[in-house]
Amino acid sequence: MKGDNSEGKRFFGLIAKVSYTDTSLAPDYHYVTFDCNYTGWQYASGSVVPKQRGKTVSTITITTAYDYNINVGHFDDISLVRSLLRPILMMRKAT
């Protein structure tokens, strides 16, 4: 899939768009998928690590997507959590 799925492909999941303060940089897209063939509730998690190292993130936009599927998809209790684990590991590696 490319970007925000403007190509029109079947997708069931979450799309995270990472935008930067430097607007000359294209946004990054990250995907967390669900099984579109399973009819019960599902749980999924993923990480969003900005691809442009050293650049300042201005926004992270999460989109729920049930694109080009039949019936309906429901999303519940979505959260985006900032983890300090990665920076701590990077600091320890640097010392």
Concise structural overview:
This protein is mainly beta. It is built from one helix and three strands; from the N terminus they run βββα. Strands 2-1-3 form a three-stranded antiparallel beta sheet, with no helix packed on it.
Q: What is the radius of gyration? A: 16 Å
Mean pLDDT: 84
Question: In percent terms, what proportion of residues is strand?
Answer: 25-35%
- Unreliable segments (pLDDT under 50, ≥5 consecutive)? none
Return the string of H and E elements.
EEEH
* Order of the strands making up the biggest sheet: 2-1-3
Number of strands: 3
Report the principal-axis shape.
globular
What does the largest sheet look like?
3 strands, antiparallel
How many angstroms separate the termini? 39 Å
**Helix residue percentage:** 10-25%
- How many DSSP helices? 1
Structural category:
mainly beta
Q: What would your notes on this structure say?
A:
The protein is globular and about 40 Å long. It has 95 residues and is mainly β. It starts with 10 loop residues before the first strand and ends with a helix. Strand 1 (11-20) and strand 2 (28-33) form a beta hairpin. Helices cover 11% and strands 28% of the residues. The chain is built from 1 helix and 3 strands.
